[in-house]
Write a structure and sequence with these properties.
Elements lengths: L5 E4 L5 H12 L3 E5 L4 H15 L3 E4 L6 H15 L4 E4 L14 H29 L2 E6 L12 H21 L4 E8 L5 H14 L3 H9 L11 H12 L10 E4 L7
Parallel strand pairs: 1-2, 1-4, 2-3, 4-5, 5-6, 6-7
Bound molecules: nicotinamide-adenine-dinucleotide (NAD).
The site of nicotinamide-adenine-dinucleotide (NAD) has 29 residues, from helix 1, helix 4 and helix 6.
Length: about 260
């Protein structure tokens, strides 16, 4: 479906980003993968994606908290794969604490990685997309782009910011064959969620089991975690021609959470 196109997925060494990268490669897109992790493990992943799907895959170790590093990644994509046609802004981190105890450096890191990185990748990807008169920008936001939860001030602020960035850029490029959308998952059992369970338990003074049952799944009327495959499937659909009229949308995929 995407043969000859290049997709860049930030934070694709784990969780949702990895699932999206796999789905795009399976449809023939060349890939730039990015994210942290064990160097050998990432190289194994890169080679496996390339071999299994017969596509070119390069890895950028760029740190999404640093504008200069993002600039290097975008230059690498242009040099090696001719520019980014499908941009998936997925890298993200979380930190859970009451606002008055929220470490300022954690606030800065979350705003940089979860929000500002998407501004930088988008501004650097658009010239190529405009030249091609085709492009897809998909921002992996969150149900927290639409509603808040206590103790997640930075994350909720960043994700609401991503919704605003999505709508603004969508309007700016609407006549140029480029769509810009945000995908808003509910809870998906990835390392990001696993890691916040003990902190949430501490912040609320309850057990980890109670966090899963009474905090995480309590928000989702389906009482099911969203799966990586479901988020990848929606992302893939937004890249198709069938989805060409969907732009500036902030799309929930959260088991009914925000219908409350
Ligand atoms: P994850 O922790 O499994 O993966 C995060 C990825 O981002 C990893 O590849 C990591 O190396 C990368 N990353 C982190 N900091 C980085 C940095 N500074 N520079 C480059 N890469 C960096 O998390 P996930 O659950 O797959 O989350 C992916 C996205 O989905 C995030 O934006 C998250 O907010 C969003 N999301 C997740 C859930 C969920 O329940 N898991 C729900 C809604 C939204």
């Amino acid at each position: 479906m995407f043969k000859g196109k290049t997709a860049l997925v930030t934070g694709s060494t784990s969780g949702i980003g990895l699932g999206i990268a796999q789905a795009l490669a399976a449809e023939g897109a060349n890939l730039v993968i990015n994210g942290f992790g064990d160097v050998m493990e990432i190289e194994r992943l890169r080679a496996q994606l390339a071999e299994r799907h017969g596509v070119k895959v390069i890895y950028s170790p760029a740190d999404m908290s640093k504008a200069a590093s993002i600039q290097n990644m975008m230059a690498l994509a242009a040099q090696e794969l001719g520019g980014v046609d499908i941009l998936v802004n997925n890298a993200g981190i979380q930190f859970v604490a009451p606002v008055e105890a929220f470490p300022p450096e954690k606030w800065d890191a979350i705003i940089a990685i979860n929000l500002s990185s998407a501004f930088h990748t988008t501004r650097l990807a658009l010239p190529h997309m405009k030249q091609k008169q085709w492009g897809r920008v998909i921002n992996i936001a969150s149900a927290h782009a639409l509603v808040a939860s206590p103790f997640k001030a930075a994350y909720v602020a960043a994700k609401h910011g991503i919704a605003g960035l999505t709508k603004t850029v969508a309007l700016e490029v609407a006549e140029q064959g480029i769509t810009v959308n945000a995908v808003c998952p509910g809870y998906v059992l990835t390392p990001l969620v696993e890691k916040q369970i003990p902190d949430t338990a501490k912040a609320r003074g309850i057990s980890e089991e109670a966090v899963r049952r009474d905090v995480l799944l309590a928000s989702q009327p389906t009482k099911q975690f969203v799966t990586v495959e479901q988020v990848a499937g929606l992302t893939l659909f937004l890249c198709t021609e069938t989805a060409a009229s969907i732009t500036g949308a902030v799309l929930p995929i959260e088991g009914g959470w925000t219908a409350h």
